[in-house]
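Interim report, section 4.2 (structural modelling).
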Amino acid sequence: AQSVTQPDIHITVSEGASLELRCNYSYGATPYLFWYVQSPGQGLQLLLKYFSGDTLVQGIKGFEAEFKRSQSSFNLRKPSVHWSDAAEYFCAVGVLVAGTALIFGKGTTLSVSS
Amino acid sequence: EPEVTQTPSHQVTQMGQEVILRCVPISNHLYFYWYRQILGQKVEFLVSFYNNEISEKSEIFDDQFSVERPDGSNFTLKIRSTKLEDSAMYFCASSHDGTLSSYNEQFFGPGTRLTVL
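Predicted structure of the assembly:
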């Protein structure tokens, strides 16, 4: 069965430091992968997505993610974190059923220290 | 920028009561979804809805749950007789179509926090 694992529940990064959030997936077919961000009181916002092609995907807010099929991973990165990046981050895999359900990981909470 | 809205932001109810969670999807979207997140758990798919009928539902979406598009703009989730374990954040989402096209995206609302006492 398809699943997504985000091994880190909570990460704290200093402002200006680099960031990597880990995501591993389990899915039998070609995965469609997503990263969403949720700020307090807000809905889930799509940061980036991978469907095919270039394994390095650029997203909004300076984020990127790299798809590595051999490691079943889709880690999210940002070279320099800003205080406004503090939020909860969710990795998800898209499942091609009628209506395309998204299967989410548990999320990683990012705190940014000054 | 168009967005998905949800009301109320927080709902408190007694066990056994019926609740209706409301969502207004983006106006030109055709597919609608409900997800939930129990505190400390992952976001879980409940149901997708298209053309006034359920397209897909998860095993969580049992007979206690129902969805409806009552008036062409609202999309509702009804829980007939709430249980303690229904306490969760419920997210509504909508998308223009139901494919995983690189041009498609599910837009999420801010969620309704349901607390069952």
